[in-house]
Amino acid sequence: MKKRIALLVLFAASAVGAMLLSVAKGSADIPLEEIFAILGGAHDTVHAQILWNIRLPRTIVAALVGVNLSLSGAILQAILRNPLADPHIIGISSGAGLAGIFIMLALPGAALLITPGAFVGAMFAAFLIYILAWRDGIRPTRIILAGVAVSTFLGAGISAMMILYSDRVQGALMWMVGGLSARTWPHVEMLWPYTLGAGLLAMLAAQRLNILQLGDDMARGIGLAVEQTRVMLTAIAALLAASAVSVVGLLGFVGLIVPHAARLMIGADYRFLLPAAALLGIGVLTLSDTAARLLFAPLELPVGIIMAALGAPFFLYLLRRQL
User: What is the predicted pLDDT for the residue at 126?
Assistant: First the structure.
């Protein structure tokens, strides 16, 4: 217990450090003491304008997205009993992406509908995968194969939308890769209620996630309504993934890398694993975004490229261990 609490404190300190580094570094470096002075009320400098209008909202969006995708991945790995589960890999993000890009391109004046629309798309993808993979139970290999098939099908729909609305596609290109460029306070306001609400529901469901790890028969013996619990938890995971996708686009591998790393360090008890994954998600995504801004400055890479470079080898490593 003490070791786990100490690790959570370490993860929290790492998350704060990563966020401070994110707001401090860029085309104009801002010293830490000046950052604290600006946060304390000094608003009449150029650095203050950079901090409040550009870096701070972007960093907060990165942190919230890191929390959402990490929690979504951790929940999916529990309910599917598959360490390869991730909202991007198994197709949930593609469902959210198809709905989101349809609203973005076909209904450009309905921006407020992107998140609820993405949630509907994510839930559709999740249940389609579940139905395709079910045959006398759920097996990890079937989930991955069903997810790849559904993701490919929905990806074709996204490509078709971009061709049909080619005159409006420029703004959607960055969204396809997953990026945090030009994310400001309205995006923070759009995202934080979903992070708070769905994140709290996920934390409250930690004991049910632990019970699911025992297997369906034992979980039913304890008194857990297994299928109803899976539906509820899938909805929470889909809402977390959809809210993130609606703001930053199809950002992959966060939900794969972070929960697995947290599990290796803190164990499989979801009472500790979920907060650990959330805190690690903040650190991983904010650091990756900082690297995306600085590696080829003044050119800025989408953070999705950095996450793909980290996540693809990690996925292949896990896949080799599982099959």
Answer: 82
How many distinct structural domains can be found in the chain? 1
Res 150: pLDDT: 87
- CATH of residue 302's domain is 1.10.3470.10
Q: Which domain holds residue 158?
A: 2-322
pTM above 0.85, yes or no: yes
Instruction: Go through the chain and tell me how many residues it has.
Output: 323
Token pair listed for 226: 């297994």
Averaged pLDDT, 65-70: 95
Give me the numbers of helices (H) and strands (E) for the chain, helices first please: 15, 0
Q: How confident is the model at residue 7 (pLDDT cuts 50, 70, 90)?
A: very high
Structure-block tokens of residue 188: 């923070």
Task: Please check whether residue 216 is in contact with residue 31, taking contact to mean a CB–CB distance below 8 angstroms.
Answer: no
Mean pLDDT of the residues in the chain: 86
> Does residue 242 contact residue 118 with C-beta atoms inside 8 Å?
yes
Most trustworthy range by pLDDT among 99-108, 160-169, 275-284: 275-284
Counting beta carbons within 10 angstroms of the beta carbon of residue 20, is it exposed (0 to 12), middle (13 to 18) or buried (19 or more)?
A: middle
Region 206-224 average pLDDT: 87
What DSSP string describes 197-256?
A: HHHHHHHHTHHHHHHHTT-HHHHHHHT--HHHHHHHHHHHHHHHHHHHHHHH-S--SHHH
Tokens standing for residue 204: 């409250």
Residue 198 burial (C-beta neighbours within 10 Å; 0-12, 13-18, 19+): buried
Q: Which element (helix H / strand E) includes 11?
A: helix 2-24
Task: Give the tens place of pLDDT for each residue, 255-282.
Answer: 888 998 899 899 889 999 999 999 999 9
d(CA 74, CA 78): 6
Helix axis angle, 170-177 to 92-106, nearest 10°: 170
Cβ–Cβ < 8 Å for 229, 191: no
